[in-house]
Amino acid sequence: MLAEFSSLTLVALAAGLLFAGAVKGALGVGLPLVGMPVLLLVLPAPTAVVVMAVPILLTNLWQMLAGGHVLENLRRFWPIILFLAVGMFVGSRLLVTVDEGVLIAVLGAILLGFSVLSLTRFRPAIPPRWHMRAQPLFGLAGGLIGGFSTVFGPPVSMYLVAIGLQKDRFVSAVGTTFFAGSVALNLSLAALPVYGVREGMMAMLACLPVCAGMALGQRLRAAIPQESFSRAVLLMLVATSMILIWRGIGA
Q1: CA of 214: how far to CAs of 22, 152, 169, 198, 237, in Å?
Q2: For residues 11-49, b (16+ Cβ closer than 10 Å) or e, as one string?
Q3: Which of 84, 143, 180, 204 has the maximum number of C-beta atoms within 10 A of its C-beta?
């Protein structure tokens, strides 16, 4: 299985996934945003989506258990979780019907938009009376995007920021909602022909550098100024998104 890649390619993949895990450990988000572009450098888009789905599931379980407040989050955010699952089912069907170049370009555009909004510190606010009503919209948007790209986090993160959650509660809510979304993602992908034994083995191997990176990122969180680290990551994502868009257009 690994014989199809050169030693240099394997080292580069491991390093990229290690960095993606470190971003997730330090910021609580960002694993697919960083990890997917790494995989797309050497894998077809459908295969990259499947390989990334398992590390996403594992790291979100880790974050959910560490963050606590699971039952409270489920009671408060069940609409966004439900519509994430619905969107995942629909979005995953696009994975085997949409042109690969389109998928790569769309992922790049999502990545670019999220990164630019984050760099400009755009902070939309949702009035309390609209909190529950807005959840289906953000959940469905995240599910549709995530079903064919694994990147379902930005719409959900934007909602959690917009309702004004404090830092610790934000990380806790992200852990619970993202884990539920990643379960739906894996179940949706498992029913598709792109999910085979080879892809499953690659996904399990990808978990090793990702989890090592997440543990490292959690340690670095206290040592590196959060603002500096976040800004550096976002600038790197802007550059990566432009490469993906260029590749998708030319595919």
Answers
A1: 5, 19, 19, 25, 18
A2: eebbebbbbbbbbbbbbbbbbbbbbbbbbbebbebbbbb
A3: 84
> What is the per-residue pLDDT across 124-164, written as a single tens digit (0 to 9) for each?
678 888 999 999 999 998 888 888 777 787 788 778 878 87
pLDDT of residue 230: 63
77 in Cβ contact with 127 (< 8 Å): no
pLDDT top residue among 197 and 128: 128
**Residue bearing tokens 């994502």:** 237
- State the Cα–Cα distance between residues 66 and 60, nearest whole angstrom: 10
d(CA 60, CA 178): 6
Q: Position 4: which residue type?
A: E
Task: Give the tokens for residue 141.
Answer: 């948007």
Q: Encode pLDDT of 28-68 as tens digits.
A: 777 887 888 888 888 888 888 888 999 999 999 998 998 78
Could you give the CA distance from residue 194 to residue 130 in angstroms, rounded to a whole number? 39
